[in-house]
Design brief:
Elements lengths: L2 H5 L1 H5 L4 H14 L15 H13 L5 E5 L7 H18 L2 E5 L3 H7 L3 E5 L2 E6 L1 H6 L4 H7 L3 E8 L2 E4 L3 E3 L5 E7 L4 E4 L7 E9 L2 E8 L2 E8 H7 L6 E6 L5 E4 L1
Parallel strand pairs: 1-2
Antiparallel strand pairs: 3-4, 5-6, 5-8, 6-7, 8-14, 9-13, 10-11, 10-13, 11-12
Length: 253
C-alpha cells in the first residue's frame, strides 16, 4: 500500500473525487512534513515517517477532536520530541482539540495546554502544566511531576518554622511538610549558615545535582554546573542553603 492509499482511506468512504482527494493528500503530507511521499510504500518508511502518515490519515477524516493513545511510545527520544512539536503545531494551525494519553510527564508538559493526571481511574488534578508542577494539590501529584524535597516543620503564630527555613503563612497551626523542588534551593558559603554536608555531586552536563545531608535528613539541589564550580567547595564540606519559599507548597501531616 502506498502512502496516498493509506491516507485517503476515509476519503474513499466519502466518495471524494480523485482530483480533490489527491489535492487533500498533498496538503496533509505537507502539514506532517512528508511532502512528495505520495507513492512511497509504507514498508519502505522509518518508524517516525510511519507515525506521520498515521497522523495524516487521522486528519484526513476532518475530526473535531483527535484522540491519541501513547502515539510516540515506540519512537526514540529525538523522534518523540519532533512528533510532539508537530502535534502542537497542527493543534494551533488547524484549531483541533487533541486528547493525548501518555505516561511521559515531560511530553505531557511540553505538548499540553492542560493536563489531567489520573491514578486508578481517578483524576488527581486537572490544571495547566505550570500550575501542576509548581502548585500540586497533593503529594501524589507533586511526586509524579518531578523530583521533590520535603522539609518537616510546624506552623505556629502565623509562621512555618523548620530547621531549614522559616516564613509567614496563613495556614492553620500544626505539623507540615514543605515541598520544594531542587531548583528552588540555592547553596551559599556563608560561614554562619554552614550546616549541610555535601554527600555527593553528580555532573549532568550543563547542570549539577548535589545531595546534601543534615540533621533532619537529606536534600537534593539542582544548579548550573558553572555556578557550582564558582562555589569552590567539594564533597564532605559544609554549605548553607537559601530556599525560595514562593516555590514551596505546604502539605499538612
Amino acid at each position: 500500500m502506498t502512502v496516498e492509499q493509506n491516507i485517503s482511506f476515509s476519503m474513499d468512504l466519502k466518495k471524494i473525487p480523485k482530483k480533490d482527494k489527491q489535492a487533500q493528500v498533498g496538503e496533509l503530507l505537507k502539514a506532517v512534513q512528508l511532502e512528495g511521499f505520495e507513492k512511497r510504500k509504507i514498508r519502505e518508511m522509518s518508524g517516525g515517517q510511519r507515525q506521520r502518515v498515521a497522523l495524516a490519515r487521522a486528519l484526513a477524516a476532518d475530526p473535531k477532536i483527535l484522540l491519541l493513545d501513547e502515539p510516540f511510545s515506540s519512537l526514540d527520544e529525538n523522534l518523540r520530541c519532533e512528533m510532539a512539536d508537530l502535534v502542537r503545531k497542527l493543534h494551533h494551525e488547524m484549531g483541533l482539540t487533541v486528547v493525548m494519553v501518555t505516561h511521559d510527564k515531560e511530553e505531557a508538559m511540553k505538548v499540553s495546554d492542560r493536563i489531567a493526571l489520573m491514578k486508578a481511574g481517578e483524576v488527581l488534578q486537572y490544571d495547566k502544566p505550570e500550575r501542576m508542577f509548581y502548585h500540586p494539590e497533593s503529594r501524589a501529584v507533586a511526586d509524579y511531576m518531578g523530583q521533590t524535597n520535603y522539609i518537616f516543620g510546624k506552623v505556629e503564630n502565623g509562621r512555618f518554622v523548620s530547621r531549614a527555613v522559616s516564613f509567614e503563612t496563613q495556614k492553620a497551626e500544626g505539623e507540615y511538610e514543605l515541598m520544594v523542588r531542587p531548583s528552588a534551593i540555592t547553596l551559599t558559603v556563608d560561614e554562619t549558615e554552614r550546616m549541610y554536608q555535601i554527600e555527593e555531586v553528580m555532573f549532568e552536563g550543563e547542570t549539577a545535582e548535589i545531595l546534601l545531608k543534615y540533621a533532619d535528613g537529606k536534600l537534593t539541589v539542582w544548579m548550573l554546573h558553572r555556578d557550582w564550580m564558582k562555589l569552590g567547595v567539594k564533597t564532605g564540606e559544609l554549605v548553607g542553603i537559601k530556599i525560595d519559599e514562593r516555590q514551596g507548597i505546604l502539605f499538612q501531616k
